[in-house]
């Protein structure tokens, strides 16, 4: 039951809202009057399948996006239906907003080729079809503008998302800087106080030699406690100076953006609350992994999922680049990342294919 609920939460419902206009676009074929209508309705079914696959199967989009364009383009060229092609005009263009511009240009070229081809065929078959009096010219405005509007809107949304995410990370770093200031104060005050206690107890042991049976055990305990507290303060300070996930993500996403790679995350807010030691271990591995993506993967998008269960902390990093590029040996390569996690009783898993590389980093809860 929980699995089905989680599945429902991951569905991109907003992508399916546009299908509410589908009955209007196919009204001309219902009721069925000839085998042509059956053919077009069959193509509508194929379009629906492709539309859903584009939404639900991102790694198939290299095939499903062009296929959806071709199916709807047939309506524009052979059925004088310029409304079906609007669906990929919005859906595909919006999804390409976070991809390299050349991919959108390629899609737009095919889109307008179908649209213009359909207009030419309509004009040759019905010379007066584009007269202002029948509204067909105005009916072309939305199909013509759809890809441009969708792509621009998607680009703006992604930029705003990146900006909001950067602001959240900066806020977290500011809060962290405040904790570091507190850590310095603790070290300067409590650390010195405990050091003083240690010195005084050692001196007292030397002075009170006349009654060692009464004083020495107490002084030993005070000395031991003070040393433990001093060590605790130092450990707290060291932990606060360790690199956090927020700091790594802020720096690395900027580096990736500089080379045209989009970074998206899920569960990041919750991950910033993970224990410092867990964040520090993951941070070191993420630096190496994201650096390798930037240098070797030739990717366009990186997705990072932060997962926490009752027993583990986990990070999944997936890129859409060339598989196998993260297989680099050495202290800072695969072996180094695996060693860091295994030192904390964690696990490191990597899978690679032509669709990209995925890392799964796991640390147990104590």
Summarize the structure.
The chain has 366 residues and is of the alpha+beta class. 66% of the residues lie in helices and 10% in strands.
Over all CA atoms, what is the radius of gyration? 31 Å
- Global mean pLDDT: 82
Assess the beta-strand content as a share of residues: 5-15%
Oligomeric state of the chains in view: single chain
Tally of contiguous helical segments: 14
- Read across the widest sheet, the strand sequence of neighbours is 1-2-3-5-4
Q: Report low-confidence residues grouped into runs of 5 or more.
A: none
N-to-C SSE string, H for helix and E for strand: HHHHHHHHHHHEHHEEHEE
Count of the separate structural domains? 3
Number of extended strands: 5
Q: What about the largest sheet?
A: 5 strands, mixed
GO cellular component, one term: membrane
Transmembrane segments: 38-55, 67-92, 104-124, 136-157
Domain Signal transduction histidine kinase subgroup 3 dimerisation and phosphoacceptor: 178-244
Organism: Lactiplantibacillus plantarum subsp. plantarum
Structure, described:
This protein has 366 residues and is α+β, with helices and mostly antiparallel strands. It folds into three domains: 129 residues, no CATH class; 74 residues; 120 residues, Histidine kinase-like ATPase, C-terminal domain (Heat Shock Protein 90). It is built from 14 helices and five strands. It has a five-stranded mixed β-sheet. Keywords: Kinase, Membrane, Transferase, Transmembrane, Transmembrane helix, Two-component regulatory system.
